[in-house]
Design brief:
single chain, about 150 residues, alpha/beta, Rossmann fold, five-stranded parallel beta sheet, about 40% helix, globular
Length: about 150
């Protein structure tokens, strides 16, 4: 992996307020470098798989973590999750659903498709900022990713 070009976090969020809150929370936690934003599911898949506007981007160059909203335009978050987790080249990328949906069927389906964690967005900024900080700390610093052999 080319560490200088690698994206640490792919943030998939279509709501401008939630996007701004998440970016502020990541910045507050000093996890604001190398973040790519996708505003719909199609854009997220193009980025992950090096297609469309991201043609030529190597799959091996990240992201190290995907923060995924479920309610997205074009392609919903569950379809993004399904495609990422069903491809052997991207299956090991941790995906954290970060959504306002508390619907049990969304939680069950997300885990069925292979999500690593499902988090309902806290309502207030302080709670949200702490959740995002904890997420970044765990997935980027503590979690051990598998080494690519090749």
């Amino acid at each position: 992996m080319n560490k200088t070009n690698a994206v640490e976090i792919l943030l998939v969020e279509d709501n401008p307020q939630d996007l701004e809150l998440t970016l502020r929370a990541l910045q507050k936690a000093n996890i604001s470098n190398r973040i790519e934003v996708a505003r719909d599911g199609a854009e997220a898949l193009d980025f992950v798989f090096g297609e469309g506007a991201h043609l030529g981007r190597k799959i091996e160059d990240g992201p190290r973590l995907i923060l995924l909203d479920l309610k997205l335009p074009k392609i919903d978050g569950l379809q993004v999750l399904k495609r990422v987790k069903s491809d052997p080249r991207t299956r090991s990328i941790p995906v954290v659903v970060l959504t306002s949906s508390k619907e049990q069927r969304d939680v069950v389906e997300s885990y069925h498709l292979g999500v690593n964690s499902y988090i309902v967005k806290p309502v207030n900024f302080e709670g949200f900022a702490q959740a995002v900080k904890d997420l970044g700390f765990y997935w980027l610093l503590l979690n051990q990713s598998p080494q690519v052999i090749g």
